[in-house]
Specification:
Layout (H helix, E strand, L loop, with lengths): L1 H9 L13 H11 L18 H30 L8 H34 L7 H10 L7 H14 L14 H12 L1 H4 L27 H6 L8 H6 L11 H14 L4 H21 L3 E2 L2 E2 L11 H8 L10 H21 L7 H31 L1
Antiparallel strand pairs: 1-2
Helix pairs in contact: 3-4, 3-5, 3-11, 4-5, 4-6, 5-7, 6-7, 7-15, 11-13, 12-14, 14-15
């Protein structure tokens, strides 16, 4: 209550003709983050709900916590495993090492992204938008642990400005901001986003972890399959997440916990999420039956696609983005199926790019407005025919 009284006391300074009115949008951003606004819109069509968009974003952040926390632990696990000192490591040492490795990336992501949001809002004289609360945590989760901070800062700046702000900000962007950042990094700095040396932290941090030799490397299971090598990791390791990979994408179990939270709260569309897996399964089964996805003479089971790479993470947290995905119920089925199918097609038919999920979501975002338009026009035509 004392915080609320303090905000009410200083608020006149940020309103029109107040001595700090130039920073009105900054104050408004902090106030509405702490408390639900008591104002309502006066015109236009509106949806009445018990929570605002900032609270929706908060639920997504909560759903991302299992993947983030496990990712921190896995970073330490992979470092100690590569050094051959796993038996000497404790849970605390591995988790703290991963925490210290990820923390700078989270700070850079939020400082650069929110800094641009604040500057943009001040320049335009608008309210600060809340969409980056989620993008700011997703972007560090979909990059390798060895991605340099300056490179991450460039990607965040590019994504926020060119994939979001120039379209009008949160709710108006066509492409998912996190996907745009990942695409920028992959096509601008491919050597830092792929290969065997991008996935395992190779230096000590404040006395924790191990200094790895230059020759030590750790390929992801998808990368090994792309090279025609049978993955070292077991299926159980891939499900639990004890494999090299992007920070938050390795554990299917952690991602599933986040999916339950999103579906239980009604934040994510179950139609989109389900259809991504259905689309991926259909294409993966087709390729399995035709023997198109093999390691030597051994065919890779179709369901392995779901426990490798970023397929599960993309299906749960990125394909379901309510801004850049389809809004119609039928459109969500088509949109999700398209993403799942395209991800498998890229994985199987383009060995030079073994992941495919981010590219599939990017193209799915591109076609989402067209899919919705066609669905709406079809419904209009059917109703006009019935009226006649």
């Amino acid at each position: 209550m004392s915080l609320r009284n303090y905000l009410n006391k200083i608020k006149p300074n940020f309103e029109k003709e107040g001595k700090l009115h130039a920073f009105r949008s900054v104050f408004d951003g902090f106030e509405t983050f702490l408390y639900v606004p008591n104002s309502t819109s006066k015109s236009g069509s509106n949806i009445h709900d018990a929570i605002d968009s900032k609270r929706i974003m908060s639920f997504v952040v909560i759903a991302l916590m299992p993947a983030l926390l496990f990712g921190m632990y896995n970073i330490g696990y992979q470092n100690y495993a590569a050094a051959g000192k796993l038996a000497e490591a404790t849970f605390c040492s591995m988790f703290c090492y991963g925490f210290l490795a990820v923390l700078p990336k989270l700070l850079v992501s939020y400082i650069v992204g929110l800094g641009i949001e604040f500057i943009w809002a001040q320049w335009k004289g608008e309210e600060i938008q809340e969409g980056y609360l989620v993008s700011g945590i997703i972007i560090p989760l979909i990059i390798p642990v060895n991605c340099p901070l300056w490179m991450l800062a460039l990607a965040v700046g590019f994504a926020v400005i060119f994939a979001k702000e120039i379209f009008g900000g949160t709710g108006m962007n066509i492409f998912n901001v996190a996907v745009a950042a990942r695409m920028f990094l992959f096509f601008s700095y491919p050597s830092q986003m792929t290969g065997d040396k991008a996935w395992i932290a190779n230096d000590t941090i404040f006395g924790l972890g191990n200094k790895l030799a230059d020759g030590v490397s750790g390929a992801t299971p998808l990368g090994e399959i792309g090279q025609g090598i049978t993955p070292d990791a077991s299926v159980m390791d891939m499900i639990l997440g004890f494999i090299p990979g992007s920070i938050g994408e390795t554990s299917v179990v952690a991602i599933a916990i986040g999916a339950v939270i999103l579906l239980w709260t009604g934040i994510a569309s179950w139609r989109t999420m389900l259809s991504v897996f259905v689309g991926g399964a259909v294409l993966a089964i087709i390729f399995e039956q035709t023997g198109s996805y093999t390691i030597g003479c051994q065919t890779v089971p179709w369901w392995h696609h779901f426990v490798m790479g970023g397929f599960a993470f993309g299906a749960v947290f990125m394909a379901t983005d309510p801004v850049t995905s389809c809004r119609t119920n039928t459109g969500q089925y088509i949109y999700g199926f398209l993403i799942g199918a395209m991800a498998i097609i890229v994985r199987v038919m383009n060995p030079g790019y073994p992941e495919g999920m981010m590219l599939a979501i990017f193209f799915g975002n591109m076609f989402a407005p067209l899919i919705d338009y066609c669905i709406v026009q079809r419904n209009i035509s059917k109703r006009l025919k019935r009226a006649k």
